[in-house]
């Protein structure tokens, strides 16, 4: 029954694995170790050459003493939870509609996945145009009342903008998983439930959501992680608000990149990265420890 | 307790017709069994009564009220599904009480009624279990409990016993019948198992290819199958048939060149007709070869049942099954005489498949007909 391939010589398997090993080494382990190194040392004033000074936890002390940093953390949390919630909620409603085979559901099932295939910066750029307060599609609302929508001026508007972008991109992905999950629920359960007197909403709450829980949990972890630290978040923020106005959308991933590559504060950015990684680990731990318990695996 | 009226109900999926105009009436409190081979539309009909399947045309009424456009929950039916359809994430109590919870029945009353129902279906000890921890028979009971707790006007059963093993099936069959006696709600039971159908039904409906073939009591259907199909489908082993022409005298047909008597009145009306002659294995007799009024038959093989046996004999290339008593033994390869008593012979038109004494007028409800001996 063992289908493992057996190689006679040792170098052939190594040769096959080598490209992947090199990729992981150069693009994952090396940077990760560098970040670790930088987080506890001080970058020489003019970069590059010279002995790096070991400073212990000084970088972290600096980071934690910065009120801007704590603001960024809370913005990130707010962004992650809102964007995840919005994306999953809308995807769920769409998936339920498609699952009920409402008119045109086949066509929509096909279209809903498309946004996921678009790179985040492209999404950001498109939404930047659509939501441009002076000339975008949305500009009409400002003719009703000036500044009804102006993400360049109001931090709250900017935050709404990046949440919409992120949710829009991830709805398709969530939708596909939810649709697949819903389709695996036996039709007769829903029929039994409707014979028992429940309407569509009740069926969704009592039958579909509990049975979909494993899928929802998986998506929750994925969405939260992705919105908290994902490259999508960076791409969207960079192309729409650039962290502004007045750092109102300066989420942690964006702050790290701009500190490192615009502020050239590698040490500070590295320290923030480590904090971020730790936070994600805590998050995931909490989710698996407490949320997963309430999931009914069949 | 409710009457169910089904008037010219049709169903098509796309352009494929599933039901071609069904007319039926179920009396209040009746136990109706719909029997048919798979794909005959019996489940579709049941699901249309339940409201799970749209009605293409025609009318279904429950208690005199047309329900075509009512949601399932507004029809007052409850249903037991073939695969039970228990909610896997709820325990037995929650499964049984779900309908009451949806209806907003207060907690205390709900618990009381769950306990009551659990007692009826014998699940008091298992209320905390999840469906996955139950055996097939127990799951079946939960499904029944879930159906009866609502005190519905109509019970619908969609092949509920087909997933159980043979022994349990017999036991649950008895329990269903007992439950019906106790609750006396109108019940509609769909099955492809003729034994289930015969034992449970007050009124038996045989369906085939989207048509109702016959409606009647189990005995009427057994003794006077209206079509050749019903004759084949009811009874085990299946009815024997041979095709022939009614002799000019009208009182016999020829089987392997030997005269075989038939009802002369019926034969007289159908002289020269090509017919399918049917006779049940339990009505055939095997006698020593050469006996008067018997057709020589070669014993092909014997199926042992213990309480008797089924002897398969061969006459002129045609095979006949004969049920014989415990004390009658036949050797394979031996020659015996086959006797077909005229009073047990059924004649069906070869063209239409209809029973000759019914043809050509199709009687949909021969409920008042006298039962043939």
What does this entry look like structurally?
The complex is a heterodimer of chains A (298) and B (373). With 298 residues, chain A is mainly α. Chain A folds into 2 domains: 28-65, no CATH class; 74-269 and 279-294, MetI-like (MetI-like fold, Orthogonal Bundle). In chain A, 69% of the residues lie in helices and 1% in strands. Chain A has helices at residues 11-39, 58-65, 67-99, 105-112, 120-130, 141-144, 155-183, 187-195, 200-229, 231-240, 252-261, 266-291; strands at residues 41-42, 53-54. Chain A has a two-stranded antiparallel ribbon with strand order 1-2. In chain A, helix 2 packs across helix 12, helix 3 (67-99) packs parallel to helix 7 and helix 9 (200-229) crosses helix 10. The two termini of chain A are 28 Å apart. The mean pLDDT of chain A is 84. Chain B folds into 2 domains: 4-223, Rossmann fold; 238-368, OB fold (Dihydrolipoamide Acetyltransferase, E2P) (Beta Barrel), CATH 2.40.50.140. Helix content of chain B is 24%, strand content 32%. Chain B has 9 helices and 20 strands. Chain B has helices at residues 42-50, 92-102, 107-121, 136-148, 166-183, 194-200, 218-223, 228-233, 264-269; strands at residues 4-13, 16-26, 31-35, 57-62, 65-66, 77-80, 154-158, 186-191, 203-208, 211-216, 240-245, 252-255, 258-261, 274-279, 285-288, 295-304, 308-315, 318-325, 335-339, 346-349. The chains are: A mainly alpha (298), B alpha+beta (373). The interface between A and B is medium-sized, with 19 and 24 residues.
Query: N-to-C terminal Cα separation of chain B, in Å?
Result: 34 Å
Task: Tell me which oligomeric state these chains represent.
Answer: heterodimer
Distance between the termini of chain A: 28 Å
Helix content class of chain A: 55-70%
Percent of residues in β-strands of chain B: 25-35%
Low-confidence stretches of chain A: none
**Biggest β-sheet of chain A: count, sense, barrel?**
2 strands, antiparallel
Give the overall shape of chain B: elongated
| Overall average pLDDT of chain A | 84
Secondary-structure element order of chain A, N to C: HEEHHHHHHHHHHH
Number of helices of chain A: 12
What number of domains of chain B?
2
Question: Strand order, biggest sheet of chain A?
Answer: 1-2
